[in-house]
Amino acid sequence: VCAGTLNGLSVTGDAQHQYQTLHKMYNNCEIVMGNLEIVLIDHTQDLSFLQTIREVTGYILIAMNVFASLPLQNLRVIRGTQFYEEKFALFVLLNYNPNTTHALRHLGLNQLTEILAGGVYIEKNAQLCHVDTVEWRDIMRDPRQEPIV
């Protein structure tokens, strides 16, 4: 079990510092108590340490990154005890660099079966594949929420 963050889009230091902080917090972590915020991570970084995460109690924010794949293949549940922008449990935004070919291409949420509360927002990810083929309503527990993809 490890603690999550509540920083939103604000970051301290450069991309290398962001990566080191992320690695320190989530290496060998299975349950994130709080929010998993992955912001401003470079394409050269090895994120394989994230594959141990099985559950996030808050929300997941993936924004302004340029890595190709997010290795959260063992994540099963987003509880949504906290929301990003007051209603989202999964928020994925601006994961590409318009000046290069580096961009998020695969979310890798193969095992995600439940979002217990909150909605899904996935927008402005120029090279992200397959998100429109996911039946988000089957994963989201709240029928009043409409996924924005």
Structural class of the secondary elements?
Answer: alpha/beta
Low-confidence parts lasting 5 or more residues at pLDDT below 50?
Answer: none
**Strand-residue fraction?**
15-25%
Sequence of secondary-structure elements = EHEEEEEEEEH
Tell me what you see in this structure.
- The protein has a single domain, classed as Alpha-Beta Horseshoe (24 nucleotide stem-loop, u2 snrnp hairpin iv. U2 a', Chain A), CATH 3.80.20.20.
- It has two helices and nine strands, in the order βαββββββββα.
- The chain has helices spanning 15-26, 136-139; strands at 2-3, 31-33, 36-39, 55-56, 60-63, 77-78, 88-93, 114-115, 119-123.
- The chain has a five-stranded parallel beta sheet, with no helix packed on it. Strands 3-5-7-9 form a four-stranded parallel beta sheet, with no helix packed on it.
Keywords:
149 residues, alpha/beta, 24 nucleotide stem-loop, u2 snrnp hairpin iv. U2 a', Chain A, five-stranded parallel beta sheet, four-stranded parallel beta sheet, 2 helices, 20% strand
Task: Annotate the secondary structure layout.
Elements: E1 2-3, H1 15-26, E2 31-33, E3 36-39, E4 55-56, E5 60-63, E6 77-78, E7 88-93, E8 114-115, E9 119-123, H2 136-139
Parallel strand pairs: 1-2, 2-4, 3-5, 4-6, 5-7, 6-8, 7-9
Short description:
It is built from 2 helices and 9 strands, in the order βαββββββββα. It has 149 residues and is of the alpha/beta class.
